[in-house]
Specification:
alpha+beta; Aminopeptidase; Alpha-Beta Plaits; 4-stranded antiparallel β-sheet; about 20% strand; globular; binds glyoxylic acid; binds manganese (II) ion
């Protein structure tokens, strides 16, 4: 069994639920088990580990002064997520380091592996929290006060996990080097210049991501009049769930009209009783697309139907990765596959986007996902493609970090 196959096998039971999906939300027991796995694997590789003030995990191979190469991703998942979104990037980095060590290689500059905490925002609602805190893109005070569905504050959750939330704050000097993230492909976005939708259609196991579509999350609170289901005439009702249904349909219609993507993936209804008209419905709207203008038009259309202004809980502008930052990747992919590296955008958000917005040098490598399914149990990639991804990481590490091979 290859090293990466073995690593993925050790991760397989962590946070797995009865539906075959993964619940690895930030600062839960499953997240703690993932973090313990990271520290144990890194130690086994002889890497120097540390937890930064925001809870991000680092493992350094030969810590030396000056900029190095940072390879990373995240260990958390969305509720009932897939096995690969996040952990694949970390496990691949560890497997690549192992293969270089076994070949007797030693980096001339630092190679670090990072696991950013709470990338999905699956528990506290704000995605890429670890990288946003690191780069100063979010105020620590706001982060500490985020609450989950059970009313647990982020600072209390961190404390319960043994971290000090009062230490949260920016450390931009940590990302002076180049950041490279390997990620399972998500969806089947258009491959540049080929007319193909996704890497499978393009016949390519690996692709280079060119950037991230702009995206945001909005909360819409719809008040109503709570009342008895058996006594209130239909004509007299002020039912927020009926308005919520209209909002969901409006979001779909506006997204179709704008060629954008709109999702209402969470609706909370209070009090949530079968025999009571709700007193309040809250919806969370996620909108993405190739440019900001169409996203804003979708949100405006939804706001007009909702009759209230949606609260913007997060916004990430369009992120374009620089071709020169991805410089070693095309040659490495050509070397491994014998073909030019396809390039394509990402519709999913990533810590790489936050780092790029903060001025870091960033590149992303995608591994073919035949179904395109992600954020769901069906997320997958074939082992040979994953192994090619590991080989690509190892080659990039070698090129960027001026390796010496011991005799
Ligand atoms: C994170 O994966 C997101 O795109 O929401
Ligand atoms: Mn991810
Ligand atoms: Mn994700």
């Amino acid at each position: 069994m290859s090293r990466i196959a073995a690593l993925l096998e050790t991760l397989a039971p962590i946070g797995r639920n009865e539906q075959g999906g993964y619940d690895r939300l930030a600062w839960t027991d499953a997240d703690a088990a993932m973090r313990a796995w990271f520290l144990a694997e890194a130690t086994d590789l002889g890497l120097e580990t540390e937890v930064d003030r925001n809870g991000n995990l680092w493992a350094h191979w030969r810590l030396r002064p000056g900029a190095g190469l940072i390879v990373g991703s995240h260990l958390d998942s969305v509720p009932n997520g897939g096995p690969l979104d996040g952990p694949l990037g970390i496990a691949s980095a560890f497997a690549a380091i192992r293969s270089l060590q076994e070949a007797g290689a030693s980096p001339g500059s630092t190679v670090s592996v990072v696991a950013f905490v709470d990338e999905e925002g699956g528990r506290f609602g704000l995605a890429c929290l670890g990288s946003r805190l690191l780069t100063g893109a979010v105020d620590p005070e706001r982060a500490r006060a985020l609450v989950d569905r059970d009313g647990v504050r982020l600072d209390d959750a961190m404390r319960a996990a043994g971290l000090d939330p009062d230490a949260l704050g920016p450390e931009p000097e940590r990302v002076r080097g180049s950041y490279l993230e390997l990620h399972v492909e998500q969806g089947h976005l258009p491959v540049d210049g080929s007319g193909a939708a996704g890497l499978a259609a393009a016949g390519a196991p690996l692709g280079v991501l060119t950037g991230i579509w702009p995206h945001g999350r909005w909360r819409i609170d719809l008040p109503g009049q709570a009342n008895h289901a058996g006594t209130t005439p239909m004509a007299d009702r002020d039912d927020p769930v009926v308005r919520a249904a209209a909002v969901v349909l409006a979001a779909r219609e506006a997204a179709l009209a704008e060629d954008a993507l709109a999702t209402v993936g969470r609706i909370d209804v209070e009090p949530g009783a079968v025999n009571a008209i709700a007193g309040r419905a809250s919806l969370w709207l996620d909108v993405r697309g190739p440019d900001e203008a169409r996203i804003r038009r979708v949100v405006d259309a939804v706001a007009a139907v909702a009759g209230v202004a949606p609260t913007e809980e997060s916004w990430t502008g369009e992120t374009a990765f620089a071709a020169e930052d991805a410089r070693p990747l095309p040659a490495v992919i050509r070397e491994l596959t014998g073909a030019d590296a396809p390039t394509l955008p990402s519709g999913a958000g990533h810590d790489a986007g936050v780092l790029r917005a903060a001025g870091a040098s960033v590149a992303m490598l995608a591994v073919r996902n035949p179904s395109g399914i992600s954020h769901a149990p069906g997320e997958s990639a074939e082992l040979p493609d994953i192994e090619l991804g590991v080989a690509a990481l190892a080659l990039v590490m070698q090129r960027v970090s001026a390796y010496s091979v011991q005799a």
